[in-house]
Amino acid sequence: MSLPLADWFERLGGIDPGPFFVLSLLPYLAFLWWAQKVRAFPRLAFRGFQLTLLFVAVTIAAAVVAQLGYGRQLADVDPLHGGAEAFLTLSNLVVLLGFRPKQAEEQEPPDSPR
């Protein structure tokens, strides 16, 4: 790797990602606002996307507990990390169920003529 490129990566690695995290919430909140206004957007899927914000809040709280209580990063404290990730799994499941096609609308009645 050339020296200027290595210097660039060194400087890039020194940037605090915190402000980028906060800024990334703005487009997500805009998406939630849009999804709420669209009548065709499945309500259950919308709730799942809202639960993703709960995952973010739980993850932040768990990271603070891991840092203050254990002096470690969240990824290094398995019970806290697993608990936080459970909220992501829950939100993903709700989004999935929200976008799942309704079986009754898609299947023909068994006795219907073709």
Can you give keywords for this protein?
114 residues, mainly alpha, 75% helix
Structural class designation? mainly alpha
Tell me the number of strands.
0
What value does the Rg take, in angstroms?
A: 21 Å
Overall morphology = extended
Number of helices: 5
Share of helix, binned? over 70%
Largest sheet: none
The low-confidence runs, each spanning 5 or more residues with pLDDT under 50, are none
How much strand?
A: under 5%
Mean pLDDT: 88
Span of the ends, CA to CA: 67 Å
H-E string: HHHHH
Overview of this protein structure:
This protein has about 110 residues and is mainly α. The protein has a domain at about 40-100. The mean pLDDT is about 90. It has helices at about 5-15, 20-35, 45-70, 80-100, 105. It has 5 helices and no strands. The radius of gyration is 21 Å and the shape is extended.
Provide a short characterization of the protein structure.
It contains five helices and no strands. With 114 residues, it is mainly α.
How does the SSE layout of this entry go?
Elements: H1 3-13, H2 18-37, H3 43-70, H4 78-99, H5 103-106
Helix pairs in contact: 3-4
